[in-house]
Predict the 3D structure of the following.
Amino acid sequence: MVKDRKLIIAGNWKMNKTAAEALDLVNGIKRELANVKEVDIVVCPPFTALAGVSEALLNSNIRLGAQNMSENGPGAFTGEIAAPMLKEFSVRYVILGHSERRQFQKEPDDLIARKAAAAHASALKPIVCVGETLAEREANITEKIVGSQVRGSLAGLSRELVEETVIAYEPVWAIGTGKTASAQQAQDVHAFIRGVLSEMFDDATARRVRIQYGGSVKPSNARELMSLPDVDGALVGGAALEARSFADIIRNSI
Ligand code: PGA
């Protein structure tokens, strides 16, 4: 099926890979995917590997992303990284509000919204993550939870900026567990999110926003997930740590 939104497939390396290991991985990914133009490909290494990976990606078809950033500009915020520091390394995307940060760093929606605004102010495209826990799905409150995460995390964005934002729907129970949402479960939530965007903005804007699926995406399930009408890409964790499996996910999605 031909969609009018270009697929975007991003590897979230999480807290994995030293700078040296990251170079090996990105060089492998470059070799595997040198000729792919049909998909926007993004790799998101840890901060300490950004400089090296950035240099390795000069003149390539693969874009660089970070995994988090501060909502503040440069200043007295020990341990934080500001958007202009990412820009220096040609970072184009930044993952915000990943469920691991929502859980372990207690990041709330309004903080994620401030980070998204700060990212846009530096022309970085945020990848804003949302998703319900297993307990929330079993309590039949998936739409309530995901709806309020979308509204809260995108609060204050203009139509123009939301079109430059990627949303990643990642059911928490599917992350790193080997359990993937079924095609129907993924499509249902993606369509729901697009409906929320229509209400917040308008139909035309909602149709232009790319919504990735994340949670145990692998070469064997990528084709089915990526062919769903409202799924516009993937945010890949474990399977993005090996060049061949990340490349196979992308090849299987075209
Ligand atoms: P996973 O992680 O592919 O290992 O499930 C996805 C993510 O957390 O972004």
In short: The chain has a mean pLDDT of 97.
